[in-house]
Amino acid sequence: MQEYKDDVRKKIVEAAYSLFLDKGYHATTMSSIAGSLGVTKPALYQYFPGKEELYAAVAAHGREELASILDRSFSTGDFRSGIEVLFDTLTQYTSQFNGIYSEMMLLAVHNEEIRTLLRHDRIEDINIVESFIRRQQGAGIISGKIDPRALAIAGDALLNGLLIDILAGLDKKEAKKIWIGAVMQLIRTDEKERAEFRKNGTSKKPDTWEGTGGSSFPFHHPVGSTTTTELTL
C-alpha cells in the first residue's frame, strides 16, 4: 500500500512540475493539476493540503533533477567538457526558468510561506552543488584550497546572471565562453597541489572553511516538461 501511495505522489509531483514550468505558479491550479491526471481535486488533497505544499515537493523534485544533471554532465571525467554540457543543458530552458523564478520572487514579497519555501529551496540547492564540488576536490579535479561553499555560491550567481543576460539579448555562444572561462579560473589547481595529489591521493584543505555554512540565491534548473498520464487514486 505504501509503495502505491509513493507512486501516486510521485506522479502528482511530476504533473505539477510540468505545469508550473509551462504555465507558471499562479496560473497552475489544483484543479488543472487534477485534470492533467484525470482525477478530482479532492483526491489531490489526500496527498497535499495545498498548492504551497505541492510546490515544495516540486522544488525537492527539481533538486533531484539538479543532482542528476550534475552527475550526467560530468560523467566523462573531463571537467571542462562537463561544464560545457551543464551549460548547454540548462540554457535549453532559460525562458521557463526565468518565468517561474521571477513569478515566485514577486509572490514572495507578500507571501511569507512562499518566501520561507524559496529560502529553504535555495539553501538546499547550494548544498547539492557544494557536495558535488567536494567530490571533485576529493578527486583532485578542483583545488582543495577553495572553499567549496563559496565556489557553489559563486557558480550559482554566475550561471543565473548569464541566464538573465541571455534573455536580455546576450549571445548564447558569448555567454558560454564567459561561463567556461570563469569556472576554469575558479577551480584551477597549481602544479604543487597537483603533485601533492598524485603523491598522496589528497589535496590539503584549509581549516578556515571546513564545515562552513551559508545561503545564496537559488540554483533552479528546470529540465523540461514531464508528460503526464491519467492517474488512479
Describe the structure.
This protein has a domain at 78-209: Tetracycline Repressor, domain 2, CATH 1.10.357.10. It has helices at residues 2-23, 30-37, 41-44, 51-73, 79-91, 94-108, 112-138, 148-167, 172-187, 191-200. The protein has ten helices and no strands. By secondary structure, the protein is an all-alpha fold. The protein is globular. α4 (51-73) runs parallel beside α7 (112-138), α6 (94-108) crosses α7 and α7 packs across α8.
For the structure shown, list the relevant keywords:
mainly alpha, 0% strand, Tetracycline Repressor, domain 2, 233 residues, single chain
Q: What's this model, at a glance?
A:
With 233 residues, this protein is mainly α.
How do the strands and helices of this protein lay out in sequence?
Blueprint (H helix, E strand, L loop, with lengths): L1 H22 L6 H8 L3 H4 L6 H23 L5 H13 L2 H15 L3 H27 L9 H20 L4 H16 L3 H10 L33
Helix pairs in contact: 1-2, 1-4, 1-6, 4-5, 4-7, 5-9, 6-7, 7-8, 8-9
How far apart lie the N and C ends? 12 Å
Q: What's the overall average pLDDT, rounded?
A: 82
Secondary structure tally: strands: 0
- CATH superfamily placement of the domain at 78-209: Tetracycline Repressor, domain 2
